Structure formats: structure tokens, C-alpha cells
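Ticket #4471: structure output looks truncated?

Reporter: J.K.
Steps to reproduce: submitted the chain below (282 residues) through the standard prediction queue, then opened the result file.
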Amino acid sequence: MPRPYGARDRLPSGQLRTPAAGNHGAPHVQGADDGRALERHDTSMAVTQPARPSSRRWNGGRVVAVVAATITALVALALLAGALGLLTAHALLRDAEGYYASSTERFETDTYALTAESLRLGDVGGGVAGGLVERAAGTVRVSATSAGRGPVFVGIAAAADVDRWMVSSAHEEVTDAHVDPFSYDSVRRSGITTPGRPAGRQFWVASAAGRGTQTAEWEVEQGRWAVVIMNADARRGVRADVRVAARPRLVVPVAVALLAGGLLLLAAAGTGLWLALREGRR
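Returned output as attached by the reporter:
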């Protein structure tokens, strides 16, 4: 039956429900406000998406750049080490006349002569620096002092002339010399004839003969050259104390060139490595 205007609803628990002010008794639509609240909640939620991987990852080009920079740096360090060795030799290993000299060492053979190509009777300077000194040599001195009886002969000539002269005479060819401790390698060449006195030969570019210390001094030229040490009277059995010295022309210019090249390559390697690593971190 119809209820009087303004009558209160009675809830099952005995409580009274009073219509909300301003609603004028309008019925409450369940879920309307709840939907708006849910909508407000959904729109306020932050949407988090997974981060995208960087597109600047390490690739083949960057790996090649790092390897190239590393190799360049190693070459630069080798050049700098060569420059340091040459400058050290130039400052510390020269005598008063500007020569780099080997120590005086004993050579002996029971044949007619000792021969050596490429002046391999001593290690001038030693090590890498010594090799560069020999290649850049301007003037070479070979000194010999007889450790036996009689005068000694020392001469420098083209290797082909020495080979032709000694082809049928017994002699010993020095092939290499070592230091710390000193030793040398040699090959014995057999023969049956006497070579004759060396001083009368016309092919020597430098020679000296006599008692005491004899020195042959020669301005280095391109080609194959050999040193010969023997008794001045061409007797068998040679015993001599030998010393080799060289005065190079190009040690300082070569050292400066190596130093400049090493520094430039080292700078290039450092720049390339820095660029490759920086790009790889982006």
C-alpha cells in the first residue's frame, strides 16, 4: 500500500534510512558512483613499459677498431724502444772519437787465415741498438794484435775477391759472434795451397800489417765485404786479439725519426681506442 510522504524506511536491523538532503527522495542508483571512482582510479595509474635495449651495442666494427688501435700501440712502443736504445747508445757507449766499439777478444785457428763477412768479429753496441749502429755505420775500424810470434795482417776487401783468393787454401770463416760470455761460431774451409803474403794483393780497400796493434780503417760502402786476419808472412796458425769499432753517420737522425713516428702512432692508437670505447658505452 502507498506510504505517506516523508515516511522513513525501516531497515531489517531496526535502523531508519533517511533520504539524503537535496535528493528529494530520488532513488539511489547502486554502482553509479562506484563506477566513477573506479574510472578515476584507472586513469591515475602509471603505465610502466620495459626499457628498450640500446641500439649502440658492441659490433664487429668497434671490435676491429679496438684490435687495430692495440696493434698500432704495440708498433708505437717498439719504435719508441728503438729510439730509446739508439739515444742511450749515442750518449753512453761511444768512445772519445765517437766510435762504438766491441770488447777485445781472442780469435785463433791452425789454418792460414781467419775471415769474416759483414764484419762479424764483434757485436758493436750489442742488442737491437748494436744492429742499427752497424747498419748505419759510416766508418769502421778493425784492430788486431798478434798473440803469437811475428807481425800480423788485417785487411778489408770485397767478399768475392777474398773467396777467389782463399778458395784452395785452408782458412776458418767466422759466421757469428756472441757476448756474455764471449764465443764465436766458425766454419773450417779446407785447402791444399799456400795463399801467399797478403800485403801484395791489390784488392784490399783498407789494410795494415806489422808488429803490435794494427788497424784497418774503412769508409763503409754498399756490397758484400769481408775481413781477413792472418800472419803477415802467411804462416799457418793465427792467434790474434781483435777489436771492431764503428762510427755511424745516422744514429741521431734515425733515433729522432723513430721517436716521432712512435709518438704519432701512440697518439693515433689512443684516440682510436678512446672513440671505440666511448661509442660502446652509449
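Triage note (M.O.): checked the attachment and the full C-alpha cell line is present. Residues 159 and 181 are 28 Å apart (CA to CA).
Status: closed, working as intended.
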